[in-house]
Amino acid sequence: MKTITITYKEHEGRYGHAYRSMTAKDAEGRDIHTEISTVNPVHFIEKAVTEVVKAMVANGQAADDFTIELPAEITLTAELQAHIADKLASDPKVASVVFG
């Protein structure tokens, strides 16, 4: 089981230019992926899973199930969750995707 925990933050920034950031960490708390500014949550989730899959390929790991833990600030409809899960599961290294 691969668990990806996503955090979302809004920052004050300098000179009145606020921005937001998202970070993805694995179950051990290691950074997987970080983006700032114009972060699209769906693209960010896809990128985070892609980074884990790259590491799985590099390490010769078999397919695995993924759990994506989202912060309260990010809400996805059941339909969107199903769409993302189906899209990501098209990769042979992704056995399944569930959202926590």
Number of strand segments: 5
Give the helices and strands as they follow along the chain. EEEHEHE
Strand % is: 35-45%
Architecture per CATH nomenclature, i.e. the level-2 architecture: 2-Layer Sandwich
Structural classification = alpha/beta
Spatial strand arrangement across the major sheet: 3-2-1-4-5
Low-pLDDT stretches are none
Count of discrete alpha- or pi-helical segments spanning 4 or more residues: 2
- Gross geometry: globular
- In the CATH hierarchy, what is the class? Alpha Beta
Oligomeric assembly: single chain
Mean pLDDT figure: 94
Q: In angstroms, what separates the terminal alpha carbons?
A: 13 Å
Helix content: 25-40%
* Main pleated sheet: 5 strands, mixed
The CATH topology: Nucleotidyltransferase, domain 5
Indicate the radius of gyration in whole angstroms: 14 Å
Account of the protein in words:
By secondary structure, this protein is α/β, with parallel strands linked by helices. The chain has one domain (2-99): Nucleotidyltransferase, domain 5 (2-Layer Sandwich), CATH 3.30.420. Helix content is 29%, strand content 35%. The protein has helices at 41-58, 78-88; strands spanning 2-11, 19-25, 31-36, 64-69, 94-99. Strands 3-2-1-4-5 form a five-stranded mixed beta sheet, covered by helices on one side. Helix 2 links the parallel strand 4 and strand 5. The chain is globular, with a radius of gyration of 14 Å. The two termini are 13 Å apart. The model has no long low-confidence stretch (mean pLDDT 94).
